[in-house]
Design goal:
The chain is of the alpha+beta class. It is 40% helix and 14% strand.
């Protein structure tokens, strides 16, 4: 309180005795209303029972105290109460209401009068909060806080690590861990450790909008980071991020963090992270789990024993953590990851893909849909190229095997394959062009004719593509000429010819044969027709 000079104190006391308001005294004396209010309370405490006239410290007559009540001043806005209340229900401010009063009813009062009157009329209803209740195994709430000062390794300095707390909403059983640094993987690993500690996972997890879990906070569709999303999917849990600036949604874990800091860690120091984590485990088992919860009026451990069987079973294997990076598909259809190349087809050359790096493998996914394109074992030596032979283009070191393969020279025929092998044996890698020429003939001419041409070239001793091509073209031309040659016309039938006997001769022959036909009952052994 400001210490005023005696004459100002006397003036304030006199005006208060006459029933002047603090606002009027402030306007007359220039003293702040807060100071006038403080002096009024001081005068009332010094003269609680002084009826009539009293004397001050210097023996002068002082006004009676407490002052005689005076009639309450009626605000100039009182006649317009109904109008002002209606405007306040429309969420209009005092300035707009004052302007309407002046325009519509020629209001003669001051703006401050309307402002004070509107302030008294406004009634702010307290916000109602629901009492959240959940079934066993339904929800877990997580959050970060600050741990106790801990000695930084290799130094003599103490620093507060990050305190991770996961609390089951039904039983209030908590899991606590301190870590020096946090990251997306550390955040997911702490969740996994909490579920392993509880012996099962819940169906929903409520978290804050920190970057380790939520990349983009949104009221309707928040975006989680990929590592956290994969971890939740691995354990069958759904994330339910709290709304921004809405800590009441996860009040259970907020209270658990405050309880840990105020009771377990207050005034303590630790020499290592491991020591603090061991103490937190001991404190949770000995004190936190055995306490009687203030709201439920039941022991936390007893409620946890009811909740434990209803938690979701844990998967056999733990989460395989990964890191993500975007890469561009190079002109050899590969992506570069840690100085190694991995095949990325069917991703087109020049496109951007998403690469997930696991401990022993990598995944190449579509950037937009997250669909899996390729998966490779992670190379151990820098400079390794993981690209199947079938996806590689021309390379002199590999083309010989490709040409001589079953799908090329051997597909034409055995003689073509033998000629190609002879050419490579004679000329080496330089003869690959001749081999390609012979193989490419199969795209234009019948393979049977090409194989015959190769056989004739081997016989002629001319191991040349030109020679094989010339023979093949000649064989094709001969085959086409044979197809174009005219066919022999059909002979006309005739009844007269030197070799054709007359009909009477044939009739007599048939008659004799009929007359000499043996009896069917007579054995064939006794006939002499064969003689």
């Amino acid at each position: 309180m400001n210490v005023l000079k005696p004459h100002l104190q006397t003036t304030i006391l006199t005006l208060l005795g006459k029933g002047a308001t603090q606002r009027e005294i402030a306007r007359i004396t220039g003293v702040s209303r807060h100071t006038i209010r403080a002096y009024a309370q001081r005068f009332a405490a010094e003269r609680p029972n002084c009826p009539g006239v009293a004397t001050d410290s210097v023996g002068q007559t002082a006004p009676p105290w407490p002052p005689t009540p005076v009639a309450t001043t009626v605000s100039a806005c009182e006649p317009h109460r109904t109008f002002i209340e209606a405007q306040l229900r429309l969420q209009r401010n005092a300035t707009a209401i004052y302007q309407d009063l002046v325009d519509q009813v020629a209001f003669a009062g001051a703006y401050n009068s309307v402002k004070r009157f509107a302030g008294r009329l406004r009634q702010k209803e307290p916000e109602q909060f629901d009492r959240l209740s959940f079934v066993p195994g339904e929800e877990m709430q997580v959050d970060y806080g600050e741990g106790a000062p801990t000695l930084v390794p290799g130094t003599e300095r103490y620093r507060k690590p990050r305190l991770f707390v996961a609390t089951l909403r039904y039983s209030r059983r908590s899991f606590r861990r301190v870590v020096w640094k946090s990251s997306q993987q550390t955040w997911a690993e702490l969740h996994e450790q909490a579920w392993r500690h509880f012996g099962g996972s819940c169906r929903y997890v409520v978290l804050d909008n920190l970057k380790e879990g939520v990349l983009k906070p949104d009221l309707y569709e928040p975006k989680l980071n990929a590592v956290y999303t994969a971890t939740l999917a691995h354990y069958g849990v759904v994330a339910d991020p709290a709304r921004v600036r809405d800590p009441n949604r996860k009040g259970t874990v907020e209270h658990a963090i405050g309880h840990t800091q105020a009771t377990a860690l207050k005034g303590r120091r630790f020499t290592s992270i491991e020591e603090q984590n061991a103490f937190l485990d001991h404190w949770e088992r000995t004190w936190a789990a055995t306490r009687i919860h203030g709201t439920e009026r039941r022991q936390v451990q007893a409620m946890f024993e009811e909740e434990r069987p209803l938690l979701q079973p844990l998967p056999v294997s733990g989460m395989q953590y990964f890191t993500e990076a975007q890469r561009t598909v190079c002109d050899d259809s590969c992506v570069r990851v840690e100085h190694c190349s991995y095949a990325a087809r069917p991703a087109p050359i020049g496109s951007r893909v998403l690469v997930r790096l696991f401990a022993r493998r990598i995944e190449i996914r579509d950037l937009a849909t997250q669909a899996l394109l390729r998966s490779h074992a992670r190379a151990e030596r820098p400079g390794t190229v993981v690209l199947p032979q079938a996806e590689r283009v021309f390379n002199p070191s590999r083309e010989t095997r490709r040409i001589l393969a079953q799908a090329k020279a051997k597909a034409i025929g055995p003689d073509a394959s033998r000629l190609c092998e002879m050419l490579f044996a004679i000329e080496g890698r330089v003869g690959q062009r001749k081999l390609w020429g012979i193989v490419s003939l199969g795209e234009r001419y019948p393979k049977r004719l090409i194989d015959c041409a190769c056989a004739r070239a081997i016989t002629d001793g001319l191991h040349s593509y030109r020679h094989v091509k010339a023979i093949t073209e000649r064989l094709v031309a001969d085959a086409l000429a044979a197809l174009d040659a005219p066919q022999q016309a059909e002979l006309a039938l005739t009844q007269e010819h030197p070799l054709i006997r007359s009909a009477d001769v044939y009739a007599e022959l048939f008659a004799r044969g009929a007359a000499q036909t043996p009896n069917p009952t007579t054995p064939r052994s006794f006939t002499h027709d064969h003689e």
